[in-house]
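Slide 14.
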Amino acid sequence: MAATLYLASGSPRRRELLTQIGVPFVPLSVAIDETPAPDETPAAYVERLARGKAAAGLASLADRQAVVLGADTTVVLDGRILGKPGERAEALAMLQALGGREHEVLTAVALAAVGRSAVRVVRSRVAFRPLTSAEAEAYWATGEPLDKAGGYAIQGFAAVFVSGLEGSYSAVVGLPLCETAQLLAEFGIPCWQQQ
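Slide 15: predicted structure.
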């Protein structure tokens, strides 16, 4: 019997991306502490969170054939992790800092099954054109920045700010599809399944 894939994420974007490549899954709600550890590098941070979500999801299941996918995305500017802004001033400061510059987006995807786990970290570079404070205010007013790493969604209204992208578009959205498909294949879960 084929393994059941569980997605340990509440992100609608990750659900859409898995559906896009024809992989059925069962959504799973997990909660882990997302506070960066002292002196933790951004790459170690996203890897720890992705692994933690997958492991927490697996621990919550009685299904011994389960495979759990966990993922995490963070925006990095000048070596500093830009998380999800908690309020307007923080979001506006992030957008102003990103304007006219290039930043890094790190996304980790992890799979966990009984006795086995694997992870990949994908790095992408995103360039923003310069932003005016009026544009940052108007973007904040859309409501989109609130639950997004770095305070923006490349697949949403913020697409107009992006002047360049080097790497994986889907990773910037929240799930690197090429690497995810490779990991899933290693765990016996094919893409393009008939739904």
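Speaker note: DSSP finds six helices and seven strands in the chain.
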